[in-house]
Amino acid sequence: MTGRAQALRALARRSGAAGLPGRALVIVAAVTAAGSGSLGLFAFYGSDDWSTLALLMAAALITEWLNVPGDEDPLDAAGAQAFSFSSGIHIAAVVLVGPFAAGFVAVFALLVADLLRRESPVKIAFNASVFALASVAAGGAFVAAGGTVGSIALPDDLVALAALWLAYTTVNTLLVSILVSTITHVPLTLLLDQKLRSEFASAAGEAGVGLSFALFVQMNGWGTVFLIPLVFGVYQARARLAQLRIETARSLETFANVVDERDPSTHRHSERVAVSVRELAVALDLPTTSILTLRWAARLHDLGKISVDSSILMKPGRLADEEWKSMRRHPRLSARLLRRFRFAAPHTRAVEYHHERFDGRGYYAVPPEAIPMEAYFIAVADSFDAMVSDRPYRSGLPEETALAEIERGAGTQFHPLVARAFVALKRGLDPKDVLSPEELRSLAEPFTSQHDLDLRSIASAVRNSRLWVLVVTIAASLAALASGRAPVILSALATLAVVLAALIAERFRTLSLARQLAAQSSAGSGADSPLSLLRAALAAAARPTWAALVEWDPQRLEGRVVSEVGTAGNRASEERIVSWLLRDADDGAGLLRREGDELDGAWLALRLASPAAVEQFAVFAFAHTPARWLEAALLRARTDIADMLLPPGAAPVPPVGPAGSGRRAPVLESRPQEG
C-alpha cells in the first residue's frame, strides 16, 4: 500500500461521510456496490486450495497491519504516503488463487486491520471495494495476456505478469484519484500525474515482493520464510525514514518559532502566515503538493532573521543604512539555509523574494516576471499579518483597514489576482466567486506547470548517467554470455563497443579542450580581453552567448559583475545571477549548473581560485545545454582559467549596495510592513 488510502484518511478526518459532497457519495456507493458484487462471485469462482488461501490471508493481514503511516503534516507529498506490502500480497493472490479469491483475501485483511484501527465504515467499504475491483481487473489482464492461474512459468509469463501489475495499479490509482478529484476539485490528470511520480517506484517494489512470494509458494510454501527478514528490513528502513522526516519537520518548526520569539511582537508570526497561505491555496483548489510546499515555504520564510540583531528587530524608530543592509539580507539568508533541505530546495526563490513587489521596487528590485507565484502568496500573507500585529514602531491596524491597504497595493506592491483572492478569503468570500475562470487559471497555471514533464531534466539525467549506462551494458553483456545464445551475445558486445567508443571520444575531447585552454592562458591575451579569448576557445564545444567574471561575497550575500563579453540580450540581471549563486555556491562544487528558473538557457559558473575571501566565478550563458565534456574540460583547466582572468595577487573589489548593484543602498525614509 502506497498513497492510495492516505488521501482518503485525510478526507475522512476532515469531513466524515456526512460531509462528502453528493457526487462523491455517488462514487463511493457505485464503487462499493461493484466491489461487493465482485466479492460475491468468490462463492462461485473461488479457490479450492484452502491451504494456499489461508497462507495468503495470513500474509495479507500481517502486511496490512504492518504499515508505515503517512505524516499528518508532511514536508512533501512523499511524506504523506502510507507504506506497506499488502498490495504485493494481493498481486500474489491473483496469480496463485485467481482474481475473485484474491479480492476475498484483500478484503478480509483490510476489514480486520481497519476495524481494529476503528477507521470510518465508509472508508473501509470504499477501500475494500477498490481492492476487490483491482484484483478482478488484474486477474482478467493476467489471463488475457496468456497467464495461467496457479502457476508461473518464467520467462514466458513476464508479459502476463506485467499486464497484471499494470491493471491492478491502474484500477487502484484511478478509483481513488477520481474520488479525491471530486472532493478537492483538483484536476484528475494532475492527481494521476502526482501519483505516478511519487508512487511508481514503491508500487513496482511491492509487486516484485509479491511475485517473489508467489514463486516461493509455488515451489515450496516454506520458502516464504526467507522473505520475512527482507520485508521486515524494508519496513524498518521506511519507518526510520518516516520518523526522520517528522523530526526534521518539527526541528524546522522549532527553529522558526525561535526566530519569531526573538522579537515579542512577531511571536508565532510565521505560523500565522503559513496558515493564511495554506487557506488561500486550498480555497483556490491548488494541487496537494503545491499546498504542502507553499505552507512550508511560508512557515520558514523568516529563518534568515536569526542573523539580524534583536536590537534592530525591536528598534522603534527608523533604521540606519547599515541596519537596513542587515535587515534586507534576511530573505537571502533564509533561502540559503533552506537550500540544504531537499524538500525545500526547489522553492527557495519564493522565500528569497517574499519582500519583492509587483512593480519591481522590492528589496532586490526583481522584475515581476522573475518572481515565482509562491512568493506573491507569501508576500501578501506576510504583509497582512505584519499590519494587524503590534510592532515596536506602531500599533496594529484593524483587520478591515489592513485589507483595504492590500486592495490599494494590488498591482503595485502585491500581485493583483493574489491580493483580490486573499482579501476575498479574509472577508469570508469564496475567491472562486470573485475571480473569473480565466483569472483562476492564470493563478493556478504556475503550480500545475510545475508537474509537467521536463524534457530538459530527463536529458540532463541521461547525460549524467553515462557511467551507469556503461555498468548496465557490461552487466547485460555478461548476462548475454550466460544465455549462450550467439545473436544475443553479439548484440550485447556491439552495444558495449559503442558505449566504450562514445566514452573514449568524450575523454579525448575533454583533454583536447583543456590543453587548448591551458595554452591560451600561457600565451597571454594580447589585444583581446581574456574573457573574449576564453569565450572564443569554448566555441568549438558550445559558443557561450555571454561570459563574465563575477565576484561573490558569501558572508554579505552580495555579488557583482566585474567584466563581461557577449550579446547584451543574453545577459541576465545581476540580481538573478546573485540569486543563483546564493542557492548553489554553498555546495562547494567546482562547477555550478543551472537551466531554466530565472535564468534563460543553460548557465555554468566555474569557481576560480580566489586570492581573498570574496569568491570569483567565471560565468557562461549558453543558448543550449553544453556538452558534458566541455564541463569536464572547464574543471580540468580551472587553475589555468583563473590565471588568465585574475591578475596575480590582485585583491577583489568589494561589492557595494544591498545586492552588488554598484551603488550604495540609500537610507530609507520610512519603514515598510516588515514581516
Automatic annotation (TrEMBL):
The keyword Oxidoreductase does not apply. The keyword Protease does not apply. Residues 244-438 form the HD-GYP domain. Keywords: Membrane, Transmembrane, Transmembrane helix. Residues 651-675 are annotated as: Disordered. The chain crosses the membrane at residues 20-44, 89-112, 124-146, 158-188, 465-482, 488-505. Pfam families: HD_5. This is HD domain-containing protein. It comes from Gaiella occulta. The lineage of its organism: Bacteria, Bacillati, Actinomycetota, Thermoleophilia, Gaiellales.
